Amino acid sequence: MSVQEVLGEDPEIVLADKRYEIISEILEMSLVRGRRKWSSSDMLDKVFLDKWLGIPVFLSFMWMLFTFAIETSGVYMTLVETWMGWLGGWFTWIGNEFVVSLIVDGVIGGLGGVLVFIPPIFFTFLGISILEDSGYMARAAFVVDRIMYKLGLHGRSFIPLLLGFGCNVPGIMACRSIEGENDRLVTILVNPLMSCGARLPVYVLVAGAFWSSTQASGVVWSMYLLGMVLAVVIAFLLRKTLLRGEPAPFIMELPPYRAPTLHGSVVHMWERGFLFLKKAGTYLLGAGILVWFLASFPMGAPIEQTYAGMIGHAVEPLLRPLGFDWRIGAALVFGLLAKEVVVEALIIIFAVEGEAAISATIAATLTPIQGLALMVFVLLYVPCIAVVATIKAETNSWKWTLFGPVYQTVLAWIMAYLVVVVGGAVL
Amino acid sequence: MLYTVALIGNPNVGKSVVFNNMVPGARQHVGNWPGKTVDKKFGKFSYRGTEIDVVDLPGTYSLTARAVDELIARNFIVEEKPDIVVNIVDASNIERNLYLTLLLLELNTNVVVALNMMDIADEKGYEIDVENLSERLGVPVIPIVATKKQGMDRLKDAILEAVKRKSVTETKITYGVEIEGLVDIIIRIINKDTGLAEKYPVRWMAIKLLEKDEDILEKIKGSTVEGEILKALA
After folding, report:
1. Domains recognised in chain B with CATH numbers
2. If exposure means fewest CB atoms within 10 Å of the residue's CB, which of B60, B164, B171, B202 is most exposed?
3. Which residues pair with A229 in a beta bridge?
């Protein structure tokens, strides 16, 4: 008999089947599966991996995460705020108005405005670390994978998407582990929809301007949720149109549940938080100075006629329907540098000092619905330049590099517009 | 006389714990596999007057030519020819773990199975007839609980015995008349090239050729029987 007749098209699979047959024969004689004792890990999995309960459980853990992060950080934010105020006051001894403005408005106002968000960022990372160290995140991956697989997405996509919660750059780089070019491209293109840590300051600021901290954490949670849902929807659409193909199943080993240790979780939080601090000390510092410069020159001109004002006015017509004026427009353009810069720019352009003042200004400038639209827009529009550069590096294609930001901005506009229209109709 | 023992097993079966139990910390070394970024752990221990070299192979589920760590593991076994291959098996996941064991038996190596996590298997309600398992596989099977250092001396004794026995018994695992018929045809062809037949385990090569294993197809290139093998496979 020929090889083909005995082993068919895929001999490797035929032999693998044969080996498992032999294994079950052997075990039939040498293994007695007694009454299984229920371990606590099995009991937790029974609930956490349940077909119906899995997703609600996942969503409630995320809710707890943001409530914890935002409610806990309030006190610390006030503390950082107070320090920044003192620091700003202290620098007035310099005397030179120009230098004082650079330091107080540009560095302390702009960068300091972002530093206030260190507590919620760190507490969010702590919460994520605890969920990871306990073994729950792997279950979340499993539960979400079940939906993604049904929608035709590669199962291995979830891990890069999860990394995107920290920062989309490592998230996109992690897509290398995905076999299949189309699978990889889809995951890269939807990754920026996962709400990275840089967007958190914007949410906390805007949500905090309109709502109590309990409601605000719900709003932040819904932003993360919206990003995830849209990532899945867009991926599904791409799969059906531009990037067709069959998904590959994903085999994942679920680690046993472990009680997370304080030390371990704090170390993991620090590893992620440190990246933010590094970015703040270098990139965000530079961006703050740049925005301050653009908002101060031509020298002596009123803010509307500075370079920042001109940029804002240039984009204003596009943003008018969403209810954003030129000042928010300019902040959104500066947000291309990094999404935290939106907060820096708002503080500098509105020329206010401190988080409380900017909150009040935002509450006076926007309606709550417009605020919500702003958050949705910041979640979805063009990712920062670091992400665009990473997309270019990983896809090695200008076509996809351009496609990503373009579809995101269109999506951002449509979703924000929907918020304004639907919100306006409901209220 | 210095013997070499290779540790192999699926990921998360406690292979590192076994390694740490065997080799004292001061005698452990970490390096890289040549040209690869995969960690290579190795070390020495002496037991009842015998010096033994231990190499910890990468954790793998299978031994195909497609993944780097699997290729490292199997190349070490076929090319460096360790005296003993200790296969760490997770008793609480025995079905999946034995897949690798069967692949090792195909390689015609001197295998000792260390049946680890007996405590967890017990919790799961598994009762494993170790003697029967050993009988069916044709190799020694030693139950251990590596995390509690249970059964380590028995494992070391089994290694010494296996080293001294030296000869590898023909495997008892066969794949049924039809497949074995094909394997025999390929074996007969390979044996005509004595250079090739001495270099690698013949039965293993035959099976891998039937599986169209890329690495082995590469290895038979230039052999006098290459054409004949490819014809038989077609």
Report:
1. 2-165 (3.40.50.300), 177-233 (1.10.287.1770)
2. B164
3. none
Q: How far is B122 from chain A (nearest CA, A)?
A: 9
Residue pair B107/B78 in contact by the 8 Å Cβ criterion? yes
| Chain A, chain B: beta-carbon pairs less than 8 Å apart | 89
What is the domain partition of chain A in residue ranges? 65-426
**Which of the four pLDDT bands, split at 50, 70 and 90, describes residue A307?**
confident
CB atoms within 10 A of CB A35: 7
User: Which residues in chain B have their CB less than 8 angstroms from residue A7's CB?
Assistant: 179, 182, 210
* Closest Cα in chain B, distance from residue A248 (Å): 17
Ranges of H-type helices in B82-176: 94-106, 118-123, 130-137, 152-165
- Is B98's CB within 8 Å of A23's CB? yes
Q: Does A241 score more than 70 pLDDT? A: yes
Q: Which two tokens stand for residue B83?
A: 């005296």
- A55, A153, A166, A256 from A60: Cα distances, Å: 9, 24, 19, 21
CA B74 to chain centre: 8
Residue B111 bridge partners (DSSP) = B85
pLDDT per residue as tens digits for the range A42-80: 788 888 888 888 889 988 998 888 888 878 887 888 788
Residue B62 tokens read as 């299978």
Query: How many Cβ atoms are within 10 Å of B137's Cβ, its own excluded?
Result: 22
Cβ contact A3–B173 (<8 Å): no
Whether the pTM exceeds 0.80: the reply is: no
Residues A15, B179: C-beta atoms closer than 8 Å: yes
Q: Which of A9, A10, A22 is best to mutate for the B interface (most B CBs within 10 A)?
A: A22
Range B97-126 burial, b when 16+ CB lie within 10 A, else e: bbbbbbbbbbbbbbbbbbbbbbebbbebeb
Q: Is the peptide bond before A120 cis (omega within 30 degrees of 0)?
A: no
